[in-house]
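Quarterly update, task 2.4: pyridoxal-5'-phosphate-bound model.
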Amino acid sequence: MCTGPGELPAIDDEVLLSDGALLEPALQDLTHAGRVASLGRQRRPGDVWGHAVVGLDTSAEMLDILRRRLQTLPAAVQERVRLCQGDATSCVLEEKFDLMILPAFSISLFHNRQQRLQLLQWVSSHLRDGGTFAFDFIHYSADNCQALDGQVNAAEFPAPDGRVASSYGARFSTDRQSVTWNFYTQLIRPDGERRHYLSASQLACIHADEMAELLTAAGLEVTARQRAALPMGNTTAERCFWRCTRRERAAYSLWHPYLPMNHMEETVTVLVRGEGSRVWDREGKEYIDASGGLWSTQCGQGRTEIIDAVAEQMRRLSYGTLFAGRSNEPAMELARTLVELAPAPLSRVYLTGSGSESVELAIKLSRLYFWLQGQPERHRVLFLDQSYHGSFFGSMGVTALFDRKERFAPLLPGLDAVPAPHPAHVPPGMSFDEYALQCAAELERRIESGTVAAFLMEPVLGSAGVVVLPAVYLARVQQICRQHGVLLVLDEVATGFGRTGRWFAAEHQGLRPDLMLLSKGINSGYLPLGAVLFSAEIARVLLDNQSGIGHGSSHNGNPACCAAALAAIGVIRREGLVARAAETGQYFRERLQELHQYPHVAAVRGLGLMLGLELAEGEGSHRRPVSPARLGGIYLAARNRGVLTYPFPSGLSFFPALTISRDEIDVIMDVLHRSLAETSGGWQHATA
Ligand code: PLP
């Protein structure tokens, strides 16, 4: 098909490297790769296709770029990477690769769909787990085809020894599935000598949609698409450069909450086993889980009482719903137990699947309560401007500590933040209590509008840095709500089940909430479960109006989740874990105070086994919250020494299992000392 007299000139570096630049993202993978295959079509004797116009299209040339690129990388990378040339036309490769590159339109040499699919399947079967396949193709639009068909164009570019001038023409097949290119190329030397080449080649026209479909059929997933304009005479086609990975091995298919997933795979801690306050990752490294996962593991991990109760329940009735007039014994018994434990006047229980769902329901129920009484205008829900209540639409709406909520706009209306008494915001010359009463006065002012249905708050602001709300504030807030008939909703998702040294934080100040929201420690985090407890008065309004609650999910009241809760509550009761949390919490808190010797420890706060370490930077009037980088450094330093903590925006929180021992707290303290000392940098006091 191709003809061309004589030897070809050496290929121009510039031309090669400009193609290399387009491949740059794939080339970056050289840093991680072990084995790299550069694929090309088989080079036949006398085959000149591509040199003048395309720049490169054979494996050898691509390999050359890779080799040069490799030389710029650290010696350790160079030693690890092995480059290999492969023939895409004959599909001969025996090993698996981390990076496979099929450059410069080579895919277009596979003329029919079946051939292309075979090639991609072969590539897919040769990619290592997490490996990358990179290739490019030209996407011709209908306009491109029309502009190019039958036209003759010219191009010129420099060569090492002169310049290359080329005339080319294209003819598309009637169905526009293929194009035949004819090239007449001259290499013009500085002394005027000309060498002539003539070539013709038939190429498949690849459509981006078809390409995507073939990749899917071959089990590949596109992870990045780049485009470059490709000028051709009087039109501009598009050069598509795609990177793929095997679909089931897409670098890290599990998506995590909140955090951007970039680099997650490199930093994630994958846990495989847990016992008490200890957990192990898959490399066998042991950690003390000082945060109880996400503040949930009251009884510690691996408790046979809870596991057996769940297994036994599953053997008896593995699934149950509360829809359609059905019920199940663990759900009923759990409701009775929660009412028994909870403060008055709570007497009814709606079981949910999470803390967020409990918050969602609390908003609905508060609105329903007033709507049923002919007061639809009382629909506003107030929340503190330092709150965390979850991530669903309603619960996100009442969460102040939520980064750029507007990304999900329009948001749920009728939710308003009021100032929270946070120690960081106390004006100079004012005590914390005075400031807290000022916040309460602002709450009352907002409530006086007459449109407020409920005030929702965490009795201890967990995510805002474990801030225990002052007793005077809580008492005043309760009074204000009573006075104005506003429902007081306590979010005890984090504070419930002994966490603060009482069954519920409400007990510390004798609060009598109208609604109380639970999750996390309800079954020690063994299975997903939450609950909304509400007063007899709310129940009365529903019953008087023969109204149900327009809310429900298939797993509400799941018997195994409830059995886990009953067993976990049993463990807390039998082992006196509530009193133990108060006692151990006191010890842990005293020990945390020692950390004041490090310059970036600003405060130690908390109640029971819910503790926070506030970190800051700078001195005197330049004091500011710790930077994310330094906080991340301290978190990692502790993690690497075997202690898992939970960061909040300006510090670390500690919510260990209520069963944690003093010895384990001593280990945590030892690690914190060393991690803070290591990350103190130039901040350490001279005396420290
Ligand atoms: N409320 C509080 C106080 C919380 O701390 C959390 C979670 O951390 C939630 C609600 C949301 O609970 P979940 O994560 O179960 O949806």
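Highlight for this quarter: The first strand starts at residue 35 and ends at 40.
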